[in-house]
Design goal:
This protein has 500 residues and is of the alpha+beta class. Helices cover 37% and strands 14% of the residues. Its cofactor is pyridoxal 5'-phosphate.
Length: 500
């Protein structure tokens, strides 16, 4: 098996007609109708557009319409979008599915605004994507952060042990829910069945950012889905691991702990009133592809990847490919985590070196790089990647000491299970006046900006948190190692904003 076996895998099957793609088919009918467009968008189905680019865009422009007769509307769907969302709910095991055209970011912000009123408390795994923190900021919520567990080999953060979250629920009976990321960016996922039961016994929903797991539960060869394990709200980036276009995601709801009416109202507020219909149609098509072809392709692809990963790991001299650990219940076989065995090279350095060899990794950190594969990978495509990894392995054997950039352990989070409330809520901190300070001056002060090594978009510091010596050391070390910080107030990372 490619993961530690659990009893929670669903067997995807359906009596609905998944060969249909109602929204996509409606857009094709619109394109063939050749009605005179006297409405937006201004390119008029492609009649008015940049001539040089028209050859590439023309087929898309013909279906890039707006809410009109015969098309349906995203914020109050009654036919084609409603049918497409119902098919998606059936495919993924939800009671209801909302299509998102603002990525999982829109789903996370929508979930925060649905669950939390100003001042409400919610237990939040600390290693969440920045969009979760932004959602809580806008909602005016009072997050109670819980420090994640750390996988010992890769040093990657994952869901905290159940006992810590159960204690947090017991000590905070007035929280509005528990929010976790599962799987993490690297495809590590935990069995969350007991966690969902604990949340439901406390009368609160379990919210799961499953951005990197839309394929979970779709075959026995991949881990079970969050919905199958009892989650109430699940946000998935359909464009990340499935075949939708970039920005196209889904939000799934199951059970009665979350008001679908309020969630729909909130999504109507934060998503555009002019959503992209090609993006929406790509969700419809991604679901169709998954059900009619993808589930079979996953089985075949996993077999190819696992056979080659196991063989390759035994052949490598300086590199290794992570194969799981006792601390991780399930490993996504569509992701390879690669690091140096000898500790002479950092993940940031590996990212650049692989790029020079023609391979662009999905993610890097101080220790690892991550490769992401699709539902359908042919032998020849996998072999190309294997050749590059072997080439890198040989290159590292000749690397001089001057070229080396060894990884180092850094304090990113508190001790596992630690509960802590920020000095100020995200909402309060966002609206406070702030001033610039050097990193040394900032120690002990309250942070006034989000310090965000990217990817994976997990903040090292959020507005309202107290800055410690460990934070400053980590920022400096990350910068030295070549980490990219997203939208900092100071690109050099020698200073940051603190609250006045």
């Amino acid at each position: 098996m490619v993961f530690k076996a659990t009893t929670h895998h669903e067997e995807p099957h359906s009596i609905m007609d998944h060969t249909a793609a109602p929204l996509y088919e409606a857009l094709c009918s619109y394109g063939r109708s050749q009605r005179t467009s006297l409405h937006v968008p201004g390119h008029k189905d492609g009649r008015v557009f940049d001539e040089e680019a028209l050859g590439r865009f023309s087929s898309i422009l013909k279906i890039d319409t707006t809410e009109s007769v015969g098309i349906d509307g995203l914020h109050h769907p009654t036919n084609f979008i409603a049918e497409a969302q119902a098919l998606a709910a059936d495919a993924f095991g939800a009671d209801h599915t909302f299509f998102l055209v603002g990525g999982s970011t829109a789903g996370n912000i929508g979930a925060a605004l649905t669950l939390c009123s100003p001042g409400d408390k919610i237990i939040v795994q600390r290693n969440m994507h920045k969009s979760v923190f932004h959602g809580l900021m806008v909602a005016g919520a009072q997050p109670i952060f819980i420090a994640p567990s750390i996988e010992p080999t890769t040093k990657v953060a994952k869901v905290s042990d159940l006992s810590f979250i159960e204690k947090a629920l017991k000590d905070n009976p007035d929280v509005k829910g528990v929010w976790i990321t599962n799987p993490n960016y690297y495809g590590m996922s935990q069995d969350i069945t007991s966690l969902a039961k604990a949340c439901h016994q406390a009368g609160v929903p379990l919210v799961v950012d499953e951005a990197h797991g839309p394929h979970f539960g779709q075959a026995a060869e991949v881990p079970p889905s969050a919905l199958s394990q009892g989650a109430d709200i699940v946000v998935q980036s359909t464009h990340k691991m499935l075949t939708a276009m970039t920005m196209a995601s889904m939000l799934h709801v199951k059970g009665n702990l979350v008001s679908r009416e309020r969630l729909g109202q909130v999504l109507g507020m934060i998503q555009s009133t002019s959503p992209s219909y090609p993006l929406l149609a790509s969700l419809d098509l991604a679901r169709r592809y998954l059900v009619t072809k993808g589930r079979t392709q996953i089985k075949e692809t996993v077999k190819r990847l696992e056979d080659r990963r196991i063989a390759l790991d035994s052949e490598l001299q300086t590199l290794s490919i992570w194969g799981g650990s006792q601390e991780v219940d399930n490993r996504d076989p569509l992701k390879w985590i690669i690091s140096g065995k000898t500790g002479v090279v950092s993940g940031f350095q590996l990212l650049d070196m692989f790029y020079e060899l023609g391979c662009t990794a999905e993610i890097c950190d101080p220790r690892n790089v991550g490769f992401l594969f699709s539902l359908d990978e042919r032998e020849e495509d996998i072999e190309k990647v294997v050749r590059k990894i072997k080439e890198m392995d040989e290159k590292l054997q000749t690397m001089s000491a001057a070229e080396q950039s060894p990884p180092s352990d850094m304090v990113l989070f508190e001790k596992e299970g630690t509960l802590y409330k920020p000095a100020l809520s995200l909402h309060e901190a966002f609206h406070k006046p702030r001033k610039r300070a050097t990193l040394q001056e900032a120690i002990g002060a309250i942070c006034g900006e989000m310090v965000l090594p990217y990817p994976p978009g997990i903040p090292l510091l959020t507005p309202g948190e107290q800055i410690t010596t460990d934070h400053v050391k980590t920022i400096r070390r990350l910068k030295e190692m070549g980490a990219y910080f997203q939208s900092p107030s100071d690109d050099t990372m020698k200073s940051l904003y603190i609250l006045c």
